[in-house]
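Before going further, learn to read the protein records used in this course. A complete example follows; check for yourself that the lines match position by position.
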Amino acid sequence: MTEKIYERQSYLKELQTEVTDCHEEDGKVYIKLKETILFPEEGGQYADTGMLICGDRQIYVLDGELTGQAADGNTDIRYRVSEKIAPGTTVLCKLDWDTRFDRMQNHSGEHILSGLISKRFGYHNIGFHLSDKEPVTLLVDGQLSEEQIMKLEEDANRIIYENLPISDSYPSLQDLAGIDYRSKIDIRRQLRLITIGSGERIVDICACCAPHVSGTGAIGLIRIVSVTRMKKGTQLSILCGRRAYVYVTHHLSIMEEIARDFSTHVDNVQARIGDLRRENEILSERLDEQVKESFFRDIKDGKYDHCVFTQDTLSAANKKQVYNELVRLRKGYVGLFWGSDESGYRFYAGGARLSGKILAQSMKEALGAKGGGSEEMIQGAVTCSRQQIESFWESLG
C-alpha cells in the first residue's frame, strides 16, 4: 500500500518516490505511488493536485481517491494523471502547495470551532464540506444564538493568537478507549487523532485523515460569514487564513468607498445610513399619502369606475382607505387590485349592502380567485391578467 507521508509531514512540498502501478480505465489514466505527499479526496476535503517530474517529462496529477474499504482501514490511493508512466519509474512529486496550505488553514480552523461547540454545548458536527471557491460549511445538531456565535468566533481567534500546537497521533485501540475525542462515525480500527493544544490546554481532539497546520497561529484568522438555522441544527459558513483576510479587506474597501461617498469616516457610516433610512421613511410616508389623495381625487372625478389597479408600494392602511372610498362613492361591487400579470394580483373587493360571499364565489369560478372574508369585504389573490379581471367586472354590470 502507498505510504501516506502527508499524515506525518504536512509541510513537505516535494518527494522523490516510485510509480508502482499504471493503468487506464474508462479513458482515464490512473497510477499508484510507493510513498505520497498528495492527500486524496476524503473526509469532506478535495484531493491535492500537483506534478510528477521524470527527466524532461511533466505529468500532472489531476485528482486522487481512496480504493478499498475505509471502515476497516484496508485502503489504498490511486491518482488520476495526465499521461501514462511506466511502473518502476522514479519521479519527483511536487505538491500544489498554495492550494494545500489554504485547505489546511480552513480545515484546522473548522476543528477549532467544532471543538468549542462540542465542549460548550455538547453539539456534534454532522456535516462538513471544504470547497475551494465557497466558504467552508459545518453543520452542528443544535441551535446556536447570535450571541453564542459571536462569542465562538471571538474565542476561536483567541486560540489562534495563543499559537497552540496541532499534532497527530495513532493510539492503540486499548489507549483509544480512554481518550475523549470527536468522530462522526464509529470506526473499529486504529485512528489518526488530531489534537489542538497540549498538556492542560487541550482545545480539541478529533479523528481526522487530512493534513493540518502545525500550530493555530498559522491559521491567521477565523471569520464566520453566514449562519443558516435549520430544523436539524445550525450551519456555519466560515473562512480562515488567506480567505478570511481577502474577505475582510474586500468588505473594508467597500465600507471605505461608502464613507467617501458620504464624506465621513468609516466609523460614522452606520449612523449616516441610519439618518438616510429615517429620511427615506419620512419621504415614503409623504409620497404614500400623496398617492392616496391622488386616488381619492381621481375616484371622485370619475377617472376610475368600479375596478381600480394601484401600486404595490402603497401602504396596506392606505390601500384599505382607497378601497373604502370606492365603496362609499360607487354603487355595486368594487375591487382594488395590486400586482402584475406575471406575478398575479392581490385584492380587496365587495360592495355596500351587497354579499361579499356571493362575489367571492363568482370570482373563484370566473378568475380562479383564492381568499375569503365577510359580507362587507373579501380579500385574496388571483393569477390571471388585468384584462380578465376588468372583463369580469364589466360582466357584473
